[in-house]
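call fold(seq) -> tokens
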Amino acid sequence: MARRMMINSLAVALALGVFAGAACAQDEPAEWRDNSMPDLRENWVKLEGKPAPKLDKLEGWLGTKARSWEDYRGKVVMIDYWATWCGPCVAGIPHVKEMYEKYHEKGLEILGVHSSRGFEKMPAFAEEHKLPYGLAADPTRDLGTALGIKFIPCYFIIDRKGTLRIAGANREKLDDIVTSILAEPYEAPSKSLAKWPPYVEKKLYANDVRGQKGPELIAAEWLTAKPETEGKVVLVDFWATWCPPCRAAIPHMNEYQAKFKDDLVVIGLSSDEKIDTVREFMKTTKMEYAQAADPEKRTSKAIGVSGIPHVIIMSSDGIVRWQGFPGSEEEPLTEAIIEQIINADPAVAARRAAKEKTASATGAGG
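ret:
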């Protein structure tokens, strides 16, 4: 049987940011890498020492709560890019399982990423073969393309800081690679060092209230249940049904609320239009976050909003930590900015600590 199975439909693309990594490609032994395809190795070398490609396009997650590299921070991760229909992939699974059982307690996580073809069979396969590690599917091929995969199974090793250390690892050396990287010193970043987003000079179309107490949120009517905001970060989106950029931002607001549901409250505040107009709009538009209407524009006038959509994000103490047009070229609103604010928020940190303490006590008692 051939040692690898080719995937000709995946093109090589290296659309990754350039950051300094923890280690450069030449720092590790050459035998750690699969060098059987020189052209592919030349591309893989460019990936090493940089942050691993994002996982946000993966679907069908199984066996893990992780959804990003931040969730894996502090762990060494081995990606096994595979498929149920690939004979060599299936033949390699016993060794992958063995590695997980051998090194998991020492800090190894394994993420089996199924190729775009036939990923629907992954859940049944995982149950039948009792795969103990995390799995996800790559239906859009975003991760496979970013990693430049041309054959499977294909292995990638990411260190505790989220740096892609070995792209296209030699399957005969996986144990050596993992044990070596697990043994490297690692100091977890202190939560106390978390910082608010930096001040960026930009056109705001409102008074600059960053670093100040946010406005009182006044609603003539709540069109959904009024949310509980105590101890949470609050994002207020000033919008209107007639505004195309506002409508374009709605799916993103849905995503932010879903992803950060435990720590973030997203509120859409419609101003300067009839409440019935907003209510009718909501009947045909998916809006999975809190909605309120303020036809008199009392809240938006308090900060001088002159252009929408306009977003303010307030920490749990009511201070505005980010403000602006979400689609701005100068500083677009991103999940990373929201996550930075959440991670820097003392009330969020206190609630997380209390939750962990409760979970630990329950586990100890159970």
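The chain has ten helices and 15 strands.
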